[in-house]
Design goal:
The protein is mainly alpha-helical and about 80 residues long. About 55% of the residues lie in helices and about 0% in strands. The chain has helices at about 10-30, 40-45, 50-60, 65-70. The radius of gyration is 15 Å and the shape is elongated.
Length: about 80
C-alpha cells in the first residue's frame, strides 16, 4: 500500500516548518544573549524559506549579533551594519 506523503511537500507544510525554524532561531538568540530588534524579529518571523532560516540558525550558533546572522558569506558582522 502506497502512503500519500504529498502533505509534507505542500505549501502548508513548508509554512509550518518555516514558523518552527523561526521560533527556534529566536529562542537560540535569546538564550545566547543576542539582542534582537523588533525589525530583526519581523525579518525572522516573516521569512518563509526554511532553508534560509536553517542557514541563519547555523550562523546564530556562534554569532554575537543579528548582523552576523544575516551577513552573506564573505561579509563580517562589523561590515553588515
Amino acid at each position: 500500500m502506497a502512503v500519500d506523503l504529498s502533505f509534507f511537500q505542500s505549501q502548508t507544510a513548508q509554512q509550518l516548518r518555516a514558523e518552527s525554524r523561526a521560533k527556534d532561531l529566536l529562542l537560540l538568540l535569546g538564550h545566547r544573549g543576542v539582542e534582537v530588534s523588533e525589525e530583526d524579529r519581523e525579518r525572522i518571523v516573516g521569512c518563509g524559506d526554511p532553508d534560509v532560516l536553517g542557514l541563519w540558525f547555523s550562523k546564530a550558533l556562534t554569532a554575537t549579533s543579528t548582523a552576523e546572522v544575516f551577513a552573506s558569506d564573505g561579509e563580517s558582522g562589523a561590515d553588515a551594519g
